[in-house]
Amino acid sequence: MITTGKIPVLRSAVRAFVGGAVGIAMGLAAAMPAQAQGNVSVVRDAEIEALVRDYARPIFKAAGLKSNIDIILVNDPGFNAFVAGRRMFINTGALMQSETPNEIIGVIAHEAGHLAGGHQERLRDQIARAQTMAIVASLLGIGAIAAGAAANSSELAQAGGGIVMGGGEAARRSLMGYQRTEETTADRSAITYLEATGQSAKGMLKTFQRFQNALSLSGTRVDPYRISHPMPRERIANLEALATGSRYFDVEDPPALQQRHDMMRAKIAVYTQGQSAAARLFRKAPQGLANQYGDAMATYLYGNLRSAQKKTEALVGAQPKNPYFHELLGDVLMKANRPGQAAEAYRDAVRLDSYKSGILRIALGQALIATGDPASLKKAVSEINTGLERDRENAMGYRYLAQAYGQLGQIPEADLASAEGNFYAGRYQDAKVFAARAQAKMKRGSPGWVRAQDIINFKIPSKKRG
Fold first, then answer.
1. At what angle do helices 395-407 and 411-424 cross, to 10 degrees?
2. What are the backbone angles phi and psi of residue 251, rounded to the nearest 5°?
3. How many helical (H) and strand (E) elements, i.e. helices and strands, does the chain have?
4. Closest to 333 in 3D by CA, of 317, 319, 349, 318
5. Residue 217: its H or E element
6. pLDDT at residue 213, rounded to an integer
7. β-pairing, 39-44 with 70-74?
8. Is the CA virtual torsion 300, 303, 306, 312 positive or negative?
9. Beta strand pairing call for 81-84 and 87-91
10. pLDDT given at position 167
11. Are 74 and 42 in contact (CB under 8 A)?
């Protein structure tokens, strides 16, 4: 089941992102509407996360990147991806609009090029140099203005004003030029990674053609020296020879992977665009599994729960080892207020899930809580804690954990879980209040007491913009 939420981005990270994150879209301004508020609107879903990790794993290996890079799904309809720190952000719009796995794999390869090339760190240096250029130009201009005033020379004063404005523009253009160079480097690195993994660059070219078409349809005239990315036509021209010259150019995605991709698109469409979105998306293949999956989810969200259960059970019958069909069945049964049966469905999902997603464990724990059985509450605590060990920053998981502890009468543990949930949701003041309450009832020096102290001592980031 798709859930949405916010993850906090420290103001220092926001400033670095606005000036220094690198991505695949046309310019920095398009990269992040949500970050301006200091939070990223994210999507959590076990199925989508597993698929994207499968796309990324061989690319990261080819790029020499370690496996500690988090891939965050951004709740945004635009076609975009970007990196900030050790995180790669991919919009749900990019996932839904991409018709093949290869298109998204090309996007991931490009972003991996930024990470492997250390572009963010070098871009911060370039930003500092550009700021220095602008400051020097301002000082020179102010000096000229002052000299003109002292000499009663309007021409000298006007020249000083021109220096101030011209210096800032020159610094900005220098920075944009540097970013365009890094984008070109990331494009070429992406081709290398795709070649090393035996995959086609056709999807990557299609992505840039999409940008070119969008720019042409907009009728907008763009100054190529005032954007942070190469013009789409230029990117395509630079990469086409390399891409088409590869022996893997005509390699297609495996049918099973394409099916998983289509089911992911159906899920995102239904959750973000409404009841008939999946049907529109797969109108040319109405009998396909992806459309059936979308129909079952749409019925669960907007229709009759008995019908949704019947459709989902048909999916389970078609692919009994698919954990996400069992997860959907659990979602349907939970909504129908049958938590005991839902727990069984989620338990099947957990058993079949080779990716060991914490999300599925937490869903199982939620169902066990809803049964109201004291023995099930203890099992819920165990399941949710196991899920949180694998997904430490899952704020929703802590909320359910606090609920289970509270019903068991373990109030200090419930307060600490509430502190953790608020902390990872970015509600730091509330987290400190719950941590203090928990700590007051815990043995000094115990693991829970120490964790509460860490939250209490956490310095809340300033809200001032830099």
1. 170
2. -70, 130
3. 20, 6
4. 349
5. helix 202-218
6. 56
7. antiparallel
8. negative
9. antiparallel
10. 45
11. yes
CA angle, 246 then 118 then 357, to 5°? 80
Residues 6+ apart with CB under 8 A from 339: 333, 367, 368, 370, 371
Encoding tokens for residue 90?
Answer: 């991919």
Going across the sheet that includes 22-23, the strands are 3-8, 39-44, 70-74, 87-91, 81-84, 22-23
- CB atoms near residue 118 (< 10 Å): 10
Which residues fall within 8 angstroms of residue 210, CB to CB, at 6 or more apart?
A: 79, 97
For 105-169, the DSSP string reads HHHHHHHHHHHHTTHHHHHHHHHHHHHHHHHHHHHHHHHHHHHHHHTT-HHHHHHHHHHHHHHHH
Owner of token pair 């893997």: 248
Cβ neighbours, 10 Å, residue 284: 7
pTM score: 0.79
Place of tokens 């790669």: 88
424-430-436 Cα angle (round to 5)? 105
CA atoms within 13 A on the CB side of 64: 7
Q: Which of helix, strand or coil describes residue 8?
A: strand
Tokens 């509600």 belong to residue = 427
Phi, psi of 175 (to 5 degrees): -65, -45
Distance CA(48)–CA(43), nearest Å, equals 9
> In terms of DSSP bridges, do strands 87-91 and 70-74 run parallel, antiparallel, or are they unpaired?
parallel
Q: How far apart are CA 126 and CA 180, in angstroms?
A: 13
**Token pair 């992911």: residue:** 264
Low-confidence ranges of the chain (pLDDT < 50): 9-22, 25-37, 119, 122-138, 140-146, 148, 156-157, 159-167, 171, 173-178, 215-229, 465-466
Phi and psi at residue 91, in whole multiples of 5°? -70, 145
